[in-house]
TrEMBL record:
SUPFAM superfamilies: Thioesterase/thiol ester dehydrase-isomerase. This is Acyl-CoA thioesterase. Belongs to the 4-hydroxybenzoyl-CoA thioesterase family. The lineage of its organism: Bacteria, Pseudomonadati, Bacteroidota, Cytophagia, Cytophagales. Keywords: Hydrolase. InterPro entries: 4-hydroxybenzoyl-CoA_TE, HotDog_dom_sf, YbgC/YbaW. The keyword Hydrolase applies. Residues 150-161 have a biased composition (Low complexity). The keyword Acetylation does not apply. It holds the Pfam family 4HBT_2.
Length: 161
């Protein structure tokens, strides 16, 4: 699993009439955290786009537990709980205030695409390589991968006859 934290101070312009962070700003908070996490991993969106590969959002979900307010210092935590697969990567997020209260949870499903055609493409190998080191063999196994048998496991009874 990979985790990265980014801090964001809520600006007055990001709040609504009730003094809460306007819900539309959370997508931008997720993007800031995602971009910073990639930068920490040595992955540049700018370079990726220069290679002709984009990463549009295929899905976004946000669950609000408590409001964030003007001048709050937020910690936006990005979590990669499962390896990137095919042309997609699922980023999960948690947003905490300074009292470490969980305010918001969410995720974005990002899709790697050819910027000329808009069609999905496999995750570039250099990105797959940088992400794969954060997962154990069990975590990188897909849902159809059979579990590994223990080294000293006896043969199943059906094979002993």
């Amino acid at each position: 699993m990979y985790s990265s934290d980014t801090q964001i101070r809520v600006r007055y312009a990001e709040t609504d009439q009730m003094g809460y962070v306007y819900h539309g700003n959370y997508a931008a908070y997720f993007e800031v955290c995602r971009t910073e996490a990639f930068r920490q991993l040595g992955i540049s969106y700018k370079d990726l786009e220069a290679e002709g590969v984009g990463m549009p959002v295929g899905e976004i979900r946000t669950r609000f537990r408590r409001p964030a307010r003007y001048d709050d210092l937020l910690t936006v935590r990005l979590l990669l709980k499962q390896p990137a697969e095919g042309s997609r990567v699922l980023f999960e997020y948690e947003i905490y205030n300074e009292a470490q209260e969980l305010l918001t949870e969410g995720h974005t499903l990002m899709v790697f695409v050819n910027m000329s055609t808009g069609r999905p493409v496999p995750i570039p190998p250099h990105i797959q390589q940088k992400l794969s080191g954060y997962f154990t063999d069990d975590e990188t196994a897909g849902p159809l991968t059979p579990p590994k048998a223990p080294v000293n496991a006896p043969a199943p009874a059906a094979f002993l006859k």
